[in-house]
Amino acid sequence: MTKVPLVDLHLQHEILADDIEAAIKEVIASGAFIGTAANPFVKKFEHEFASFSQAEHCVGCANGTDAIELALRALEIGPGDEVIVPARTWVSTAESVVLVGATPVFVDSCPTDHTIDPDLIPPAITSRTKAIIPVHLYGQPARMDAICSIAKKHNLYVVEDCAQSHGATFKGKPIGTFGDAGTFSFFPGKNLGALGDAGCIITNNQSIATKTKRISDHGRSGKADHDLIGRNSRLDGIQASILSAKLKHLPEWNKTRQQIAANYISQLQDLPIDLPKIGEEASHVFHLFVIESDDRDTLRQSLSDKGIATGIHYPKPLPHLSVFDSSNEYPVASRQANRVLSLPIYPYMPDQIQQHVIESLKAAFTPSP
Length: 369
Ligand SMILES: Cc1ncc(COP(=O)(O)O)c(C=O)c1O
Prior knowledge:
By secondary structure, this protein is an alpha/beta fold. It has 2 domains: 10-247, Aspartate Aminotransferase, domain 2 (3-Layer(aba) Sandwich); 250-364, Aspartate Aminotransferase, domain 1 (Alpha-Beta Complex), CATH 3.90.1150.10. It contains 11 helices and 12 strands. Helix 1 (10-30) packs across helix 7 (237-247) and helix 8 runs parallel beside helix 11. The structure holds pyridoxal-5'-phosphate (PLP). Pyridoxal-5'-phosphate (PLP) is lined by residues 63-65, 89-90, 92-93, 135, 161, 163-164, 185, 187, 197, 199.
């Protein structure tokens, strides 16, 4: 039986093996392993990713969770403050709010596109609200025009969680550049992934760039000068040079994801499932291809019987995880959590593998004779 993984990173790594090995060897020869301010590999990647994102600054850090935390710390958000986050996202979005001592306030999702529902943000704002963290979930840009105008009206910061949306745009503008800062994860399976943990913050604000850099390097302002309490969350030389080697391929990889998604959408449209709806004026980069079905678990089992791996991103709204334990209702997020199913999608996914997924889904809805 053909085994189909949800994501296959071997294919991109086989193609890039020589470039990646050369990049690693160069760092080993130079000895520039740690991402302190002078590390040339980190500086090079930061420069390249800022330019790719059309942002003035990029600050590398250890992972995407830290990236959010560093941005919030740089904005001096802390105890007593509230931060609005979507009810449906990966735990890091809300976890980082708690890590700085602030309180996450959850807002339900849009029924159509899984991102935060801007109409529900104003009722969640209180005198303690300091920021909104929209998440471009699955690669779909959140409605940044509506979100930024709410933020402006209420004098709130916006930190975009771009961990799943490298290269996506909204109204032609790269995500991560709408708010005060954009944060990225380079977890290996992301649209741009390192070979380990890595992340970054992009911003057009010099003060946020300087502060996040400093906090990520023990609050250091000089070789042995520390003028604020920081931590160690540096991007390392090896991951930075691997990311530089991979960044060149990101536009082509995103295009491939969009082609695979378009093929799924055209071939699955007659099935009784809900297919992803791409937001108006948004370019969706399909980190995940997520369908919805009332019979999600049966469908998942029938794909698994054919050797096809699927995912559930995510099985519970965040406020209903025991760590947050809210009794508030999030009807849209709860319905989505019970219905979502992620199908295999990754660059270089062979056509016949995608066809096998499509035929297997169709067969799941065909009554056996
Ligand atoms: C939406 C979102 N935010 C934040 C993160 C955190 O990234 P990392 O795993 O690099 O800490 C992830 C990673 O899965 C994510 O998907």
